[in-house]
Design goal:
alpha/beta; TIM Barrel; 8-stranded parallel β-barrel; two-stranded antiparallel sheet; 39% helix; 383 residues; single chain; 11 helices
Amino acid sequence: MQPDDSLSLESRPDRVGAPLVVAADGAFPLVLGLDTFGDRTSHELAGLDSHARTIRNVVEQGVLAEEVGIDFFGIGEHHTDEFPMPAADLVLSAIAARTTRIRLGSAVTVLSSDDPVRVFQRFSTLNAISGGRAEVILGRGSSVDSFPLFGYDLADYERLFEEKAGLFAELLKGGPVTWQGTTRAALRNQDVVPHTETALPTWIGVGGSPESVLRAARYGFSLMLAIIGGPPARFAPFSRLFREALAQYGQPSRPVGVHAPGHVAATDEQAVEEFWPRWLETIRRLSEERGFRVPTRETFMRDIGPDGALYVGSPETVANKIVTNLTALDATRFDLKLGLPGLSQRSAMASIELYGNQVIPRVRDAWTPSMLDTQADRPVHQA
């Protein structure tokens, strides 16, 4: 198995979408992806779709994403009525069987309430099925529904993720694993199958914790900034901290990505009309569980403006905002979080088509590698 901290991978343009090759100067390719949490779709006349139909709809979304040139399709683990997506890897395997190019992964996998060995096995299996197109984004779980479901105590929130992230890093190295901790049984010279033919790119999803940034750097994972509220520019210090920590830990350079909610329609007005009522209802429900501020129309319009976290609008509006924030955050990857509970499958598919056919070409036309400093241009911090 090729080590996860390899500086370059063999590009397979016939099988794989965005290449994983890292230039010698530390630059990374621009990657434009799409994420879903399995948001429960609806039909204009029949109301909310069943869980089963929603899952089948997600498969169709992933297939369409490849057809319109999107680089990555991610599915986030959730365990609720509005987001019936507890087994993202199974759904990704169905998409893998019907695609040949697009990269596929989690967005995110709640590692704290899962077994790292099983996560590794599931995604290395997906990597085999897809011909080396799998990725995994690991998270602590901003949505904690999985903790009581699987018998975990929220009091162990930090310890669970720290230990399990460490074990996952060991599994990525290949070869027999020896590990001991307090959150699962020890491993002694254990061979974990299936072995991978290519590296399994692994990210840590970060929603606001500097400790998670440092953890990603320490283990040599890439950094995914999950920005769902407030000005995106406030996350810029996390990117700088990540670069400095990688150098201090003696790790090779790693990419920084951005995950953020949004919706694309033909015009700004249509996008707002389709997205706002469902956004309001979704946040209103979440506010009861997680204390979120319920938006007003005024605060929503600020959130979709130039300094807000939501990417809602026409292809031109969304593309311009992506370019602006990737530059501000020193990032080379953007994953648009598609959909909301109650949004119709027709609207979701139209949004995917516009994102792939119109937003992505605009971003690529406006983007040049010189928009970001490369790792070679930065001072090197000794470990």
